[in-house]
Amino acid sequence: MNIIDKSRIRSKFASAIATYDTQAIAQKAVNSRLIEIIKEYGRTQFNSVLELGCGTGDFSVRLVESCSANKWVFNDLIADIEDIIRGKLPLVDFKFLCGDSEFLEFNDRFDLIASASTVQWFENLEVFLINLNDHLNNNGLLLISTYLPDNLKEIQTQTSLSLNYLSEEKILNALRNRYELLYYEPLKVQLEFDSGRDMLNHLRETGVNAVSDRSFSLSDTRKLIKRYEEASALPNGKFSLTYSAFLFLAKKL
């Protein structure tokens, strides 16, 4: 497993800002399903909402379109994200907090804390989920997606590069003592690429390559592409990359 350097995450995602919206197909599928989950639960009116790790704002826009709130707060590790969010939500009065979501100090409590495809980068997700309870109002909700140990399995089988993803069981155990678990589901999103090089470009252009600071030589890259294509070939001539997400909705006890 790979230890994540938050400064590397900031750098990789900052470099991917211009391409993220086009390439983040799997992440957008996760965002869409999270919104379906909160709608299905039937609670979409809140006094205050916080989104952690808002990135380029696809999930932010979906939240604002689907939920109403008197107070919106968006957070991200990258300061330049604020201008992007303000451009996508010009009519929304919100506060932007720049900083590491895992260790951000909140002065307020919220009715909904939401986060999509962010918390898998945290050093200790179990402790974070437990402590997040203190920043929710009574009956406050968590709406979160992360990723499971078999995420990007086609890459994991060819390299040792992976985050220390929590299992479904460990995530649920972290929630049980402080939350009522309202709903959860695993979600797999399989992408298809014309080549291994296209797959590597996808990882770079979404910032997912922040998983490692390892530099690959040209020879190493060619070998990786060859092994990846051999392991992930599909009957249609394309090559697969599978995101394995875990989504949940929980309520503060």
From TrEMBL:
GO molecular function terms listed in the Swiss-Prot or TrEMBL record: carboxyl-O-methyltransferase activity; malonyl-CoA methyltransferase activity
Pathway terms, separated by semicolons: Cofactor biosynthesis; biotin biosynthesis
Keyword S-adenosyl-L-methionine: yes
Entry keywords, A to Z: Biotin biosynthesis, Methyltransferase, S-adenosyl-L-methionine, Transferase
Keyword Transcription regulation: no
PANTHER family found in the cross-reference section: ARGININE-HYDROXYLASE NDUFAF5, MITOCHONDRIAL
General function of this protein: Converts the free carboxyl group of a malonyl-thioester to its methyl ester by transfer of a methyl group from S-adenosyl-L-methionine (SAM). It allows to synthesize pimeloyl-ACP via the fatty acid synthetic pathway.
Matching HAMAP family: BioC
Protein name (record): Malonyl-[acyl-carrier protein] O-methyltransferase
Protein encoded by which gene: bioC
